[in-house]
Amino acid sequence: MRLLITGGRGMVGSNLVRGLSEAHEVQAPGRDTFDLLDARSVQETVSRLAPDLIIHAAGRVGGIAANAAANALFLYENTMMGLNVLEAARLAGVPRVLNLGSSCIYPKDRDEQLREDDLHTGPLEPTNEGYAVAKIAVLKYAAMLRNDDPRCDYKTAIPCNLYGPGDHFEPPRSHMVPSAIRKIDDARRAGDAEVEIWGDGTARREFMYVGDLVDFVGHAIERWDTLPPLVNVGLGHDYTINEYYAEIADVVGWGGTFVHDTSKLVGMKRKLLSVDLADAWGWKAPTSLTDGLRRTYEHYLETAR
Ligand SMILES: NC(=O)C1=CN([C@@H]2O[C@H](COP(=O)(O)OP(=O)(O)OC[C@H]3O[C@@H](n4cnc5c(N)ncnc54)[C@H](OP(=O)(O)O)[C@@H]3O)[C@@H](O)[C@H]2O)C=CC1
Ligand SMILES: C[C@H]1O[C@H](OP(=O)(O)OP(=O)(O)OC[C@H]2O[C@@H](n3cnc4c(=O)[nH]c(N)nc43)[C@H](O)[C@@H]2O)[C@@H](O)[C@@H](O)C1=O
């Protein structure tokens, strides 16, 4: 199949390009020649490349601090990019699009697993409201095109928090896992006895290895017709932030203690996806947390330092 992957130089996109290139013909032009904020240029490129399927993995992405500092920018850019890609696909007659959402589209303050039909049932988390509103607008546009036009077989997968090779380790952009890897590795090198955790460490998160998302997308392409049009992609279980830091300390080989900065942003207390739908479709995430963290730390040592 001829695939066009947006954001092919990002964490998710670069892993998709690597993982799917053997089985498929993959095109993944970068932002220098394919600026997704420029609707006309997106239409021209999509029409010229005429892919069988677009995987939309581009976006303005960042951790809690980056989002909270620029909610308007995250809303604007992610909405524009997503709508430009979908509209260009529609105009060029691209039959299939797999759009990537995010678990932050669901209501905050839910202790139970978040199901696909929980969308629009409560207020959003303010630290990333701009990003969430954009993700909702784009997935809705995909769903409405699908409903209005039988030629638009456009679907959205909703991943939980992700980490892995190609992640961004530099603050303030980083998500928790790459930030913790960097802080703990710095402490190991410097012989520091303490590392700081944002918040009290009791918030829970579901972090999935990015290779598992690539595995899911590979299956989605193979079994496209049965893939639900809106589907969560996660592990179905989560850990506290303190538990992630402890596991990362083990992987890095650092034996110090943690201190908590409770003045930092914490965001949702829990953000755990229900994976019942993906499970019934026949997919499970294959990588354990320890294996995923080991591979990510190896990548960090090879490239990011
Ligand atoms: N990381 C995570 O934890 C999660 C990510 N997702 C979703 O997965 C997708 C990929 O995220 P991730 O790989 O982590 O993010 P990255 O920041 O690693 O990658 C984003 C990519 O989008 C590209 N991009 C940004 N703006 C533009 C633009 N104007 N024109 C063209 N390309 C652009 C970037 O290009 P450049 O390299 O030039 O900056 C980069 O290649 C996003 O949709 C994100 O919302 C969903 C859930 C969790
Ligand atoms: C993918 C997802 O990512 C973001 O939401 P988030 O889940 O809050 O992501 P995060 O990884 O930044 O934080 C997770 C938790 O971890 C705590 N935490 C501890 N110590 C550090 C730390 O050092 N850095 C960071 N970033 N967080 C830390 C932090 O306080 C929070 O409680 C949004 O961009 C959202 O838009 C989105 O889609």
From TrEMBL:
Pathway: Nucleotide-sugar biosynthesis; GDP-L-fucose biosynthesis via de novo pathway; GDP-L-fucose from GDP-alpha-D-mannose: step 2/2
A GO molecular function held by the record: GDP-L-fucose synthase activity
Reaction equation(s) it catalyzes: GDP-beta-L-fucose + NADP(+) = GDP-4-dehydro-alpha-D-rhamnose + NADPH + H(+)
Binding, NADP(+): 7-13, 100-103, 135, 159-162, 175
One protein family per Pfam: Epimerase
Record flagged with keyword DNA damage: no
NAD-dependent epimerase/dehydratase domain residues: 4-234
Keywords: Isomerase, Multifunctional enzyme, NADP, Oxidoreductase
EC number: 1.1.1.271
Residue ranges that the Swiss-Prot or TrEMBL entry lists as coiled coil: none
Uppermost EC category: oxidoreductase
Residues that, per the record, bind substrate: K183, W198, R205
InterPro entries, sorted: Epimerase_deHydtase, GDP_fucose/colitose_synth, NAD(P)-bd_dom_sf
Site (Important for catalytic activity): S102, C104
Gene Ontology biological process: 'de novo' GDP-L-fucose biosynthetic process
The organism's place on the tree of life at top rank: Bacteria
Residues annotated as catalytic: Y131
PANTHER family: GDP-L-FUCOSE SYNTHASE (PTHR43238)
Family listed: Belongs to the NAD(P)-dependent epimerase/dehydratase family. Fucose synthase subfamily.
Record function comment: Catalyzes the two-step NADP-dependent conversion of GDP-4-dehydro-6-deoxy-D-mannose to GDP-fucose, involving an epimerase and a reductase reaction.
Protein name: GDP-L-fucose synthase
